[in-house]
Amino acid sequence: GMIYAMEGYWFAQGLMRRVMITTLTMHLFNAALSYTLIFGKFGFPELGVLGAGIGTAAGLWLGIFIYFCLLKLFVKGTGLFRKLVSAATARQIFGLALPASTLELLVATGWTTYLSIVGRLGTDSLAVVSVVLQLTVVVLLPAHGFGIAGGSLVAWALGRREIADARRWGWQVCLLAVALGTLLGGLLALFAQPVLAFFLHDASLIGLAVPLLYITAVTMTFDAWGSVLHHTLQAAGSSGLVTLIGGIGIWLVCVPASYLAGPVLGLGLTAVWGTVVLYRITLAAGYVLAWRGDGWTRKLQSL
Quick one: 299 exposed, middle or buried, by C-beta within 10 A (0-12, 13-18, 19+)? Predict the structure, then answer.
C-alpha cells in the first residue's frame, strides 16, 4: 500500500523515471537475494520457498526505504511526516480509494472463478490459459504505461481547470496506445508458436494455445483503449464509475459467459477464452462511453 501511494505521487508529478529506477532496484535486489536464499549460495542457508518469501519482502521494504528517502530529499515545505491527515482529507482519500480497492477485489475473485471454470475443462486447458494470460499481461505492459502517462496528463490539465484539454489528452494517448497495441499484436501473431514453445514443451499444448494467442493478438486494440481510459477516468476522480464498469465486465460478462461456454454448452477452450475477449471489449466500450460523456466532468465543473 505504501509503495502504491508513493508511486502514485511521483506519477502525478510526471516523474516516472524515479519510479522506474526504484522498481528496477527493488526487483534486482529481490531476484539476487531470493536466488541466494533459495539455493543457499555465498554461505547462506538453503531456505527454499521461505527464501523466496524473504527475498520478496526485503525487496518491498527496500522500495519503501528508497521512496521515503526520495520524499525527504525532494518534497519540502509540505509538512510531510510532521502532521496528521485532516478528517476532510481522509474522507476524500477514502472516497477515491474504496472504489478502487473494491474493483481490485472484484477482479481478483473474478479471475480466480474464471480459472476454476477453465480447470473443469482439464489440466491441459488450465496450464495453457495460465501461460497465455501471463503472456497477455507482459504484452499489455506498454498500454499500462501509456495509461499511467495519460492519467498524469489528464490530472495536470484538470489542475489547470482545463476540462476540454483533459478530454483531448485522453483521446490522444489512446490513439498512440492503439497504434502500439496493433503493432505488438501483429508481432505476437507472427511469432506465436516460437513464443509459446519457450513456455510449453508439449506439441499438443502448443496447439491448444496458438488459437488463444491469435485471438489475443487481434483484440489488443481493445485492451489499449480500456487500459488508457481506465487510468484517465481514475485521474479525473471517477473511481466509482471505473469500479462499476469493471465489476460489470468481470462478473456479469466474463464469469457467466465462460461458465455457459464451457461446462454448460461444452464449446471448448477457444470459446471459453473468447469470453475474456468479450470482457475486454465490454471494458473498452464502457470506458469510451464514460469518457465521451460528461459524468466525470460535472463534479469538476462545480468546484
Answer: exposed
Q: What is the DSSP letter of 303?
A: -
Mean pLDDT of 208-232: 89
- Mean pLDDT along residues 278-302: 85
Report d(CA 290, CA 288) in Å as an integer.
5
pLDDT, residue 33, reads 85
Cα(141)–Cα(7) distance, integer angstroms: 16
Taking the CA atoms of residue 72, residue 73, residue 74 and residue 75 in that order, the dihedral angle to the nearest 10 degrees is 20
N-terminal to C-terminal alpha carbon distance within the chain: 29
With the CA atoms of 165, 286, 143 and 27 taken in that order, what torsion angle do they form, in degrees rounded to the nearest 10? 110
Which of 240, 283, 273 has the alpha carbon at shortest distance from 114?
Answer: 273
Q: What is the mean pLDDT of the chain?
A: 85
Cell 469470453 sits on residue: 275
CA dist 46 and 48 (Å) reads 6
Confidence (pLDDT) at 173: 93
Does the pTM surpass 0.90? The reply is no
Give the separation between CA 124 and CA 47, rounded to whole angstroms.
31
Q: CA torsion sign, 40 to 44 to 48 to 54?
A: negative
Residue 248 confidence (pLDDT): 95
pLDDT above 80: residue 196 = yes
Has residue 82 got a pLDDT over 70?
A: no
Residues sharing a CB contact under 8 Å with residue 290, sequence separation 6 or more, in sequence order: 229, 233, 238, 241, 245, 296
What gap in Å lies between CA 241 and CA 218, rounded to an integer?
27
- To 10 degrees, what angle do helices 163-190 and 203-218 make? 150
Handedness of CA 299, 149, 166, 162 (dihedral sign): positive
Radius of gyration for the alpha carbons in the chain, expressed in angstroms and rounded: 21
Per-residue pLDDT for 188 more than 90? no
